[in-house]
Design goal:
The protein is an alpha+beta fold. The chain has a single domain, classed as Double Stranded RNA Binding Domain. Helices cover 40% and strands 15% of the residues. The strands form two sheets. It has a two-stranded antiparallel ribbon with strand order 1-2. Strands 3-4 form a two-stranded antiparallel sheet. The N and C termini lie far apart (43 Å).
Length: 53
């Protein structure tokens, strides 16, 4: 079975560590569909949605 490299922020999976590092270098932005707020993780977005909307 091939090794899987998983992004700790968004849980996407990659077949090589280099691809994972490229993915992480691009950064993450999770946008709120109601107010267009931007958050670094899905968890922070969900917290925002619970509190603000």
């Amino acid at each position: 079975m091939a090794q899987v490299f998983r992004c700790p922020m968004c849980r996407m999976e990659f077949t090589t560590e280099d691809t994972l590092e490229e993915h992480k270098a691009r950064g993450h932005v999770f946008r709120c569909p109601e107010c267009s707020g931007e958050f670094p993780t899905q968890q922070r977005l969900e917290e925002h949605e619970r509190r603000a909307h």
